[in-house]
Amino acid sequence: MQNVTDSFVSLGHWPSAGSFGFNTDILATNLINLSVVLGVLIFFGKRVLSDLLDNRKQKILNTIRNSEELREGVIEQLEKARARLSKVEMEADQFRVNGYSEIEREKLNLINSTYKTLEQLENYKNETINFEQQRAINKVRQRVFQQALQGALGTLNSCLNNELHLRTISANIGMFGAMKGVTD
């Protein structure tokens, strides 16, 4: 191993005889090599790097443009949605107000029809009571008349004998005959 390191160390001390050779001074050669590599990179890489940056810039600009267009579209959709929401809220309020009005109107109609029905029922009740009263009065009259007639017949039968009875019948037949002659 010692021989290998000695050979590298001895490379650094080659005498230059005025001919072409390698400079083995690492610090001096590194600086030159770096400046050559950087010069080549800048010369050739400038165009590549510029193209890469231009492409990236265009992508960013396109992305910004697309984002702006999407933003404008979303804002427009949001405004439309807000307008629709406002319209729907107004319609809902109108339905609510109309619904309350309709409920009140139906309530009043129901109350009025109930009052009319109650009035009709009251009238029917009064008519029924009057009818029943008249019927009861007529029944009482008929009974009173029948009792009075039976009482009169009973009195007549007890007071009349056959001869008086025949004379009364003859007198009544005579009156009917006289009435018949007047009407003819």
TrEMBL record:
Keyword line: ATP synthesis, CF(0), Chloroplast, Coiled coil, Hydrogen ion transport, Ion transport, Membrane, Plastid, Thylakoid, Transmembrane, Transmembrane helix, Transport
Residue spans crossing the bilayer: 26-49
GO CC list: chloroplast thylakoid membrane; proton-transporting ATP synthase complex
Principal location class: membrane
Coiled-coil annotated residue ranges, if any: 64-98
Top-level taxon of the source organism: Eukaryota
Record localization: Membrane; Plastid, Chloroplast thylakoid membrane
InterPro entries: ATP_synth_b/b'su_bac/chlpt
Bilayer disposition of the protein: Single-pass membrane protein
Entry annotated with the keyword Transcription regulation: no
Similarity remark: Belongs to the ATPase B chain family.
Additional record remark: In plastids the F-type ATPase is also known as CF(1)CF(0).
Function text: F(1)F(0) ATP synthase produces ATP from ADP in the presence of a proton or sodium gradient. F-type ATPases consist of two structural domains, F(1) containing the extramembraneous catalytic core and F(0) containing the membrane proton channel, linked together by a central stalk and a peripheral stalk. During catalysis, ATP synthesis in the catalytic domain of F(1) is coupled via a rotary mechanism of the central stalk subunits to proton translocation.
Quaternary organization: F-type ATPases have 2 components, F(1) - the catalytic core - and F(0) - the membrane proton channel. F(1) has five subunits: alpha(3), beta(3), gamma(1), delta(1), epsilon(1). F(0) has four main subunits: a(1), b(1), b'(1) and c(10-14). The alpha and beta chains form an alternating ring which encloses part of the gamma chain. F(1) is attached to F(0) by a central stalk formed by the gamma and epsilon chains, while a peripheral stalk is formed by the delta, b and b' chains.
PANTHER family documented for this protein: ATP SYNTHASE SUBUNIT B, CHLOROPLASTIC (PTHR34264)
Protein name: ATP synthase subunit b, chloroplastic
Species per Swiss-Prot/TrEMBL record: Chrysosplenium lanuginosum
